[in-house]
Specification:
Strand content: under 5%
Largest sheet: 2 strands, antiparallel
Order of helices and strands: EHHHHHEH
Shape: globular
Number of helices: 6
Structural class: mainly alpha
Strand order of the largest sheet: 1-2
Radius of gyration: 18 Å
């Protein structure tokens, strides 16, 4: 965590976060993700940012660029930056195999698989 102003480190209660994630029926694959732990132990428990604010980006901004995050804090545009390791493809596969969903922004990487609707021509066209 890169804070603006005085330095500090937020430490979540790992046992409490793991217990809560189990009660919320998150798979072991999701419980092991850095972003799931960040959301539960730091954003919710320590900073008091509720899941609705996390989901709507009311309290957070995201960037894939470490330099942009550091610049935002240095310029005062952000109060702090939390840098996390990227999600590995094997983690994504484990979550999918468990039938679970990834935490918000944990798949904030490129290239992405194409998704969308496919329209086939009707018979006779």
């Amino acid at each position: 965590m890169l804070p603006g102003g005085e330095g500090f480190l937020l430490v979540g209660d790992a046992v409490a976060a793991a217990d809560r994630m189990r009660r919320e029926r998150m798979s072991a694959a999701v419980r092991g993700l850095d972003l799931a732990i960040l959301h539960s132990a730091i954003l919710e428990d320590r900073l008091g940012i509720d899941p609705a604010s996390i989901a709507t980006d009311d309290a957070l901004a995201y960037t894939r660029s470490e330099a942009d995050a550091i610049r935002a804090v240095a310029s005062g545009d952000a109060k702090a930056a939390i840098l996390v390791r990227p999600t590995r493809l094997e983690q994504l596969a484990a979550v999918a195999s468990a039938g679970d969903v990834m935490p918000q922004k944990s798949t904030y990487f490129y290239p992405k698989l194409l998704t969308g609707l496919v329209f086939y021509p009707l018979e006779g066209e």
